[in-house]
Amino acid sequence: MDVTQFRQTIKTEHGYRTPARPRLLAHYLPGWPPFIFYARVAMAFLREGLAGRRGALNNKRWLRASLSCMQAVESAGGRLSVSGLEGLSSHKGPLVFIANHMSILETILLPSLTLPFNDVTFIIKDELRHYPVIGWVMQALDFIAVHRKNPREDLKVVLDAGQHRIQQGCSVVVFPQATRSTIFDAKHFNTLGVKLARKSGVPVVPVALKTDFHGGGRWVKEIGPIYPERPIYFKFGRPIAVVGNGQAAHRSVVEFISQNLSAWGVEVRSHPA
User: Fold this and answer.
1) What is the residue-wise DSSP string for 189-244?
2) Are 155 and 192 in contact (CB under 8 A)?
3) What is the pTM for the complete model shown?
4) 3-state DSSP assignment of residue 144
5) Coil, strand, or helix at residue 26?
6) Count of beta carbons in the 10 Å neighbourhood of residue 93
7) Which of these, 81, 120, 85, 136, lies nearest to 202 by C-alpha position?
């Protein structure tokens, strides 16, 4: 499926599911899935990273690269289930997407699911901008980077840079958890996304995701084992208006994520008060 076909599919069907097919290579050649996954992802990033260094990288190319990464996942035996995109189809204008964070997978796959509706940028940890190749892409796309050393400073960066991008018509993806985790703890899910949406006057969209298909590496988190037997889920909620101090919107986001993760068998340790 090419970019045009995929864009049309998710905009009309409001979701996507990996076609059923036997995973013979993953079953009989256990060393093959990681090889094909990393090889295809590396090629996608290298191609767009070089374009970025030439000043030629844009969201259209980034969408193509993200779709290539999705195809890399499927080539390695991964199965995706995407749902809930109705709210994006009916909404006009930028949004703040608020998602839980399990692995690097959501950072490279979410563009393929959000860019067909609107331009989008991500809030990322600054060290990713300095990685070879992948950093070239993130610098070229001007992702909003935080250092995670001074929470007050990070908040200012996100609110100022995020509002500026939203005023330009660009949506923003926020991962409020301090670090990636396969366990969801609502107490550690901060209100950064809601604060940005409130300041910018736009709705928030909760995104529940399960991406433990990709595991963190021992030395480099972005390079770890993959688990083809673990299904991948992305579920989007409908846009939620941020009213008053934003506490009601934050509770709605956390409840949406908690309920869907629980349904998928993910451990949810606590719930909002």
Assistant:
1) B-SHHHHHHHHHT--EEEEEEE-TTBPPPSS-TTS--B-TTS-EEEEE---B---T
2) yes
3) 0.92
4) strand
5) helix
6) 12
7) 120
